[in-house]
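Protein modeling request. Please complete all fields; requests missing the sequence field cannot be processed.
Requester role: graduate student
Desired output: 3D structure, C-alpha cell encoding
Chains: 1
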Amino acid sequence: MKISYKWLTDYIDIDISVDELAQKITDSGVEVEETIQRLPQFNNIVLGKVESVEKHPDADKLSVCMVSDGSASFQVICGAPNVKADQHVAFAKIGTHFPNGLKIKKAKIRGIESHGMICSKEELGLEDKSQGIWELDSDMLLGTDINDVLEAYNDTVFDLFITSNRPDCLSHIGIAREIAAFTAKKVNYPEINIKESSSRVEDLVKIDIEYPQGCPRYAARVIQNVKIGPSPQWLSQKLEAIGLRSINNVVDVTNFVLNELGQPLHAFDYDLVEDHHIIVKKSQPKQKFTTLDSKERILPDDTVMICDGKKAVAIGGVMGGLNSEVNDKTTNILLESAYFNYVNIIQTTRKLGLITDASNRFDKGTDPENVIYALDRAAQLICELAGGEIAQGIVDAYPQKIKPVVIPFRPQQVNRILGTDLSESKIMQTLSGLDLVDAKGGIAVPSYRVDLRKEIDLVEEVARLINLDEIPTSTFEPVYLDQKENQDETLFEYTRNLLIDIGLQEVFTNSMISTASAEAIDKDNVKILNPISEDLATMRPSLLQGLLAVILHNKNRNNHDLKLFEMGRVFISKGSEKLPEQPLNLALALCGKRDRQFWGGDANDVDYYDLKGMVEMLLEGIHVSAQKFSIKKQRIYESYYSIELSIDGSKVGHCGKLDDALLKKFDIKTDVFFAEFNFDILKKFILLDKKYNTIGKYPYIEKDLALLLNTDISSLEVIEFIKSKGGKLLRNVNVFDVYADKKIESSQKSIAFRLRFQSDERTLQDDEVDQIFRKIIKKCQENFKASLREG
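Delivered output (791 residues):
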C-alpha cells in the first residue's frame, strides 16, 4: 500500500520530519517497509522551449528541433510523435547523467548532429512507459534548473505493510487517523458541497437487492451531461505518486476516492444500463461474464452480480463489465457505492484468480457507513472536473441496517494485563484519539474499525498508542528444568559419531518389511494384524533386510561402493501370547571397493578383514575390552567367514561374509560383509571412566615367539594366556604372522607373537627379560601342547 506524504498533508497538519513520521507510523503498528523519494536529483537538465520542429530528411519518425534554454539554442533530434513548437520541456544537455545510467553525449543521427535530449516522464522516472515527451506547464524562466521546476512533482511515498485485520488503513484518510491518534492532531475531512439539479434520481434509476447476504447495501447517484477528458494536473499527479496511471477524469476520480477514503466506487455508462434498473443478484451456475480486461470468465457459485434489466454489468466488488464501461462518448454516469460481504468477495476472487484494488478492500472489510460519504465526494469531484449535473437525491438500498458495535470495557483491565499504572482518564483519552467513545454498556466502536470486537482488542489499542516500548517489562524468577544426563542417549550418539568417523555412512530404514523379506532370515517373526500393504506386513527381526534393500537401491543406480551402518529397534518374537522383545541393534554392511580408484593403481575389493577391522575399531573406540571372537557357523554367513562375538560369556553379536544363496533372494550379485550387534547388551561393557597413561620414558625390549599350535586354538586365547603369565613388565602382545604349509602337519598352524616388555621405573636388563620370556615359552608348551617353530 503506497501513501503519498504530500497527499497526507491535505488531511492533517504534520510538523515532524518524514523519517520521524515513518518511525512513529511503524511504532503504532502499521509497518513502513520503505520510504521512496519520488524524484532523484537531476544534473544539467533545465527548463527549455521548443522553438521549431522540422521533419528529419532521412527518417520519417524523427524530427529536427531547435530548443532554447533562454541563453542559447541547440539542435536536437527527437523521435516523439507529440513534439511541436512552443512547448516547454525538460531539456537534458550534453553531459547529463540519468539515474538509470544513461549519459547524454553529442551524437550524429542519420547524418544530423544532436546536442541534447528532450525528456519524457519515463526518462525522469515519473512513469514506467511514456508515449511521448512531457510538455510542461511552467511560467518559470527558461534555463531554470529542472529540480526547481519539478518541485511540485517531488514527493515522499511510504510503502506500507497493512495487516489483513486493518482495512481501515488502506487509504490516506485511514493513515491520517492513525497519525492523529499519536500526535493529538485533528483530521481534516474533505468538505462535501453538492449542487443538485432539478432531475430526481428516483425517476432516473431503480435499485433492487435480491441477494442481501452478498450485498447488504447498494447506493447510487446519477450525473448527467458530463464531458469525458483528461484529468487536471493535480489529480493525475496524486495518482502517479502512488503508482497509478491517469485514464480520464471520471475513472481517475473513482481511483482518487478509493485511495483517499478507502471506499471502492464504480462508474457505469448510464445509457448502457438497460431499463436504468440495477439488480443485485446471485450468479447462475456456470454463468459467463466478460470483465473490463476483455476476458470472459466462468463465475463461481454465489458470486455477487450487478445486473441491469437484461444482463450482468459487473462482478460486485471485483470488476466492472466491458458492456457498460465509461468511454469517450459517455455523457451520463451512474455512480455506484456499495458494501459487500467480505466472505463472498474472498471466495469469488480466489476462485477466479482475480485480485483488484476494489476486491483488496472489500475482502478485508470496508465501512458500511462510508458508502454515502464516498459517493457524494466522488459525485462532487466528477461534477467539478467533467462538468455535468448531479441529479437530486441518492438511491440507497439498505434492507437491514448494520448495527454499531459496543464493547464492554473495564479500564482497570488495561493495567492488569499490561502491568502499567495508567489513570482511567489517560486510558479513555487514548481511546478517544481513535474515535472510540464511552457509551452506554461500554465503548462504541466506529464502523470503519472492523478489527475491534473484544475487550482485549481495546487493551491492545491502548498498548500500541502509549508505545509498547514504554510498557514496563515484568521481572520473572527463572525456573530451571535441569534434567540428568540420559546415559543411554549419550552412548547412542557417541557410537553413531564414532562410526561416522570410522568412515561409515548412516542410513535409516523402515521397521516394517515384507513377510518374504523377513522369512528369508527367520520363519518365526512378528506379524502385523492389519498391515497397510503386503510390503509392510512384518516387523523386522534384524537390520539386515533394510541394509540389503539400501544396497540394492544404490547398485541399481551405479553406486556400488558402500560402507553403511544403522542403529534401530528390531522385533524378536516370543510367541503369540507375549509381547516381542525390542532390542536396540547396531549393524554394519560393506560391499564394493575398499578405496576409490586412482592413477597409481587399481582399487581392491573390501573383504572380511575390512569388516573385522572396523568392528575392532568400534570396540576400541567405545572402550570395550575382554571380547572374544569365535568361529561359529550361522546360516546367513558362509562357513569360513562366520564369527560370533562374546564378551565375558555374553553373546553380543556376529559378523561375516553373507551367504550367496541369501543374497540371491535379495537380487544382489556381489559380496556383502555384514555385522550386527545387540547394542542393549554391548553398552553394558562400555567403559565410561577409561583412563590413559603417559608413554613410558624408559626403553622397551621386544621378543618374538613362533609357536606350532593345533588349528582349533585361537590366537586370542594364546594372547590372553601369555598376558596372564608375563607379569607387570609384559606390556603388549601382538600377532604378526600366521603360517601353514606342507612342512607343517595339517592339524597344526604356526602363529608368531611379538612381546613387548617395559618398566615405568628403570631400564630393563636382558637377563631379566630372558628369564620371563623362557617362563612364558614353558607355560605355553605345557598348556597348549605347543612347540617352538624352527627356522
